[in-house]
Amino acid sequence: MTLTVQPHRESLGLKAGQLFIDGQWTDGRGGQTWTHQHPATGEEVGGFVSGTAADVDDAVAAARAAFDGWATSRARTRIDVLLRFAALLREHADELRGLQALDNSVPLSFGGIYATSVEAAADVFTHHAGWVDKVGGQTLPPYQGGDHLAMTFREPVGVVAAILPWNAPFLLFAQKVAPALAAGCTVVLKPSEYATFAVLRMVRLLTEAGLPPGVLNVVTGPGDPVGEAMITHPGVDKVSFTGSRTVGKRIVEASAGTLKRVSLELGGKSPALVFADAPNVAIAAATVVGAVTMGLSGQACVANTRALVHRDVYDEFLGAAQGMAAAVTYGDPFEPSVISSPLINGRQLERVLGYIEKGKQEGARLVTGGERLGGDLANGNFVAPTIFADVDNSATIAREEIFGPVLAVVPFGDEDEAVELANDTEYGLGAGVFTADVQRAFRVSRRLRVGTIGINGFQVEPHLPFGGFKESGLGREGGQSAYEAYTELKSVLMPLTEEMM
Length: 501
Ligand code: NAD
Description:
Keywords: Oxidoreductase. The chain is α/β, with parallel strands linked by helices.
């Protein structure tokens, strides 16, 4: 039977998407639309406005006009909006999960898992509501003595251009918008052209929560022209971006024009280090393979796509890894038994299949998968869970972010070699360490040049800093560091006696 998502489109009442500028839903100035094709079925899901540089001008002007009012609003006003929105998100979680399944085909089963859930996004808003009246500056004793005040203030950075990828729209919307609004910034947001509908619904809920006009504006459409207009706009003070390394580098380049502040959450080639004393090798294998094949089908920035495995447990790991890969199910994202997704579009499908060919050509051993799925799934961008063993760490599939269900397994002999292999990459987003030796766990964690490490497991925590070393990014999202990244520090000095003036 051919897969279709049409009934869900109707039951969720999907409407054509518009821009949201200065509190108004509008078709903008260009009259262009973008049609979204469902990644699992190839069907046209719906259309939305494909914005222009002129629409970005309007959105930035609205954000600038709203800035002073929002930046100086009562703390209570901002807290109430963030908390009301968190409550609305929780109330509308099922609807949002359904819209996400229409956008990026992340199955409902996985949309319920905390890391990519509406609940996690709501928790980020609840968390940041708590910062609104707590982050301030310091008053320092005067270094040169005497009656002198030396103080610092934290002030909102200004107008923020927030640019989202398609893979985890709930959490990533929250990680940018919540601290920006809490800090008193105003925002121009661009969702990914491959995950727009759920984000537009979130924006409607944010207005229901009482957000004043102009404080958050949305321009939908592709990276060029919409994203380009945002990152080069002289009225934008900061760009907060999550997406690929290539676009991240372009943003750094474009920021030079007006020296914009830049936060970047980019890709990874994160290693899992599985030592011979891992508490349970089969569970380690299931954890690693699960993250690379289930849910987002490896299209997750922090997935451990390189497994470095000690030679003593290498065969055991590969056996369990194959077992896990065989258990992954694909199909209709609204079907509860489906636990994984297709690749987001045809371009990404070709790219992943190209990497698989490259892996074979470069001499890695294909243990399982390696092909596109056919039959009922032939209209979608599905690729079978793929495991390569005996991969050399210098091979293309061990170095480049594939963003698909492809695991490269690399053997190692001792701890030093494992750490050296783990750090031998341009990326530095995350890592997993599997060992029962507590000292080894912390020793190795200290030596890894990455932003986040899971020891014998991993979970997303909405209040912990998250981000990358090296080419995986700049800055951190999550918690206090995120809030602070939407502020500027200002020093104010004042003598307290006439003689010192
Ligand atoms: P992408 O870089 O192709 O697109 C991301 C966003 O940037 C989209 O909204 C896109 O329209 C926009 N864009 C494209 N070109 C632009 C330009 N020239 N100027 C401004 N904006 C532009 O990435 P993607 O395919 O949507 O997402 C996958 C990537 O995101 C992977 O590399 C993944 O690792 C990364 N990612 C990182 C994190 C993290 O927290 N570190 C989380 C999720 C995804």
